[in-house]
Amino acid sequence: MDESYRNLTDFIRRTSVPETFVDILLCAVPIWLAVMIGLLIGWSWRPRWTGLVYLGFRSKLRFLWTAPPGFGARRVWLAFTALSAFSVCRTLWSRLGSGAKKSDIEEEIPPSGDAVSRGSDKKTEEEKDVVREKDLEHLLAAGNDKMEWQSMMDKSTPNMSYQAWRHEPQTGPVVYRSRTVFEDATPDIVRDFFWDDEFRPKWDPMLAYFKTLEEDPQTGITIVHWIKKFPFFCSDREYIIGRRIWESGKKYYAVTKGVPYPTLPKRDKPRRVELYFSSWIIKAVESRKGDGQMSACEVSLVHYEDMGIPKDVAKLGVRHGMWGAVKKLNSGLRAYQSARKPGVALSRSAQMAGITTKVNMDLLETSRVEEEEEKGQATEKARRQKEQFNVDWKWIAVGGVALACGLHSSAIGKALMVGAGQRLARR
Q1: Do 215 and 197 touch, CB atoms closer than 8 A?
Q2: Three-state SS for 281?
Q3: 365 and 139 in contact (C-beta within 8 Å)?
Q4: What is the CA radius of gyration of the chain?
Q5: CA-to-CA distance for 122 and 142, rounded, in angstroms?
Q6: For residue 90, how many C-alpha atoms fall within 13 Å in the half-sphere facing its CB?
Q7: Which of 68, 171, 222, 313 is least enclosed, having the fewest CB within 10 Å?
Q8: Beta strand 276-285 with 271-272: parallel, antiparallel or unpaired?
Q9: What is the chain's pLDDT, residue by residue, as a tens digit (427 residues)?
Q10: Is the pTM of this model over 0.70?
Q11: SS in 3 state form for 24-56?
């Protein structure tokens, strides 16, 4: 009883009166709009003889008005109103149930302070490293200029500039690439800002829930559970994200991607996004003030995900909401800078962001280039072998047709006889 009362009070606190009225309007208005349009069209296109029928049955219409349920305008009105009320009650019940499910999840998942440490697990190195160097190489390969990129946006504010592109592969989701330069910001602050889940709800209204599932204090790998709010016409989305940061020189390579997590099974709602990749390169650059100081921070992002939404609809939503999201991101970074005062303790997420894996990017780039060259040479060799042993069947077919026509017309036989006669005459 206490648990039901607690769920009910939590639901009442979350649900506002305007949202309930919006649900009622969304359920009732389309039905009555369709009814009104149908009556208007039907009445305007009625035949002339319907007037005579109406006069003849005018007395019987009173009977229809007082007929049993299912007849008459009042019964139709009550029926549609009941359907609308049923739909609203079903929506409220589903929200109450989702709140109870959320509380159950919170009880099953340990709090972020008690996240499972992966340093002492008896797992193989490959199983522990859910985010590996292959993912870092994928970040470097996905952001190159060899791909065909379409420019989407080029805007700036007094303390930030932003450029965005997109690439549409033949299969899979759209790939987005962006370059953001924050003035008066250091790479360390930007790195912690992107990792700090405790601070993220203050500037990201879509993040409704987060928990740290696992963390490795040796490599800095963390697995987090996110639930993002979406508009009313689309269910919320769930993410299981593995993330890790590499450091080379004064650059940070942050990789986040969707990872499987068997201990947290999928549900109908929210819908889980399994294909997810959002990674960026953070480095210090020269300020646009022209003073020669490396006081600005550049963030190069590569992002794609399969949210289960039609590609055209997703592209439209991204295009219209991109600039607003970027401005919220900039405002959140400035607020984070103000909150990071000396002596203020860092959150657990920000502490994990400071645990990076050192890597020599020159060697990694060289090995990646050599691997691509070897793949290119192998492909070229296979193509040449195919061309060497490949038979041009087009000319064989043409020759076969010509031979058949020649034999049919005896032209080839005559030519052979003439040639043989000339040789005998020479002897």
Answers
A1: no
A2: strand
A3: no
A4: 34
A5: 34
A6: 7
A7: 171
A8: unpaired
A9: 555 555 555 544 444 444 555 555 555 666 667 777 777 776 666 565 555 555 555 555 454 444 444 445 555 555 555 555 555 555 555 555 545 544 444 444 444 445 555 544 444 444 556 899 999 999 998 877 678 899 999 999 999 999 999 999 988 899 999 999 999 999 999 999 999 999 999 999 999 999 999 999 999 999 999 999 987 678 899 999 999 999 998 899 999 999 999 999 998 889 999 999 999 999 999 998 888 889 999 999 999 999 988 888 888 888 888 999 999 999 999 999 999 888 888 999 999 999 999 988 776 665 555 555 555 555 555 555 655 545 454 545 545 545 444 544 555 455 545 554 555 455 5
A10: no
A11: HHHHHHHHHHHHHHHHHHHHHCCCCHHHHHHHH
Residue ranges per domain, the chain? Answer: 2-108, 112-359, 361-390, 393-426
Are the C-beta atoms of 263 and 223 separated by less than 8 Å?
A: no
**CA atoms lying within 13 Å on the CB side of residue 351:** 12
CB-based burial, 34-55: b 16+ in 10 Å, e otherwise: eeeeeeeeeeeeeeeeeeeeee
Is residue 335 within 8 A of residue 202, CB to CB? The reply is yes
**Is 167 in contact with 293 (CB distance < 8 Å)?**
no
Which run of H or of E encompasses 363? helix 361-388
Q: Which residue has the tokens 């009445």?
A: 43
Distant-in-sequence contacts of 203-207, Cβ < 8 A, 24+ apart: 203/328, 203/329, 203/331, 203/332, 203/335, 203/336, 204/328, 204/332, 205/229, 205/328, 206/230
Nearest to 228 by CA among 113, 313, 325: 325
Strands 207-215, 116-117: parallel, antiparallel or unpaired by DSSP? Answer: parallel
State the burial class of residue 337 (Cβ atoms within 10 Å of its Cβ: 0-12, 13-18, 19+).
middle
Q: What is the DSSP letter of 112?
A: G
Asked if 158 and 287 touch (Cβ cutoff 8 Å), the reply is: no
C-alpha 76/C-alpha 68 separation (Å) is 11
Q: What are phi and psi of 156, to 5 degrees?
A: -155, 160
Q: Are 253 and 365 in contact (CB under 8 A)?
A: no
Q: Alpha carbon of 417 to those of 240, 412, 424, 427: distances in Å?
A: 83, 9, 11, 16
Give the three-state DSSP class for 406.
helix
Tokens of 248: 């080379």
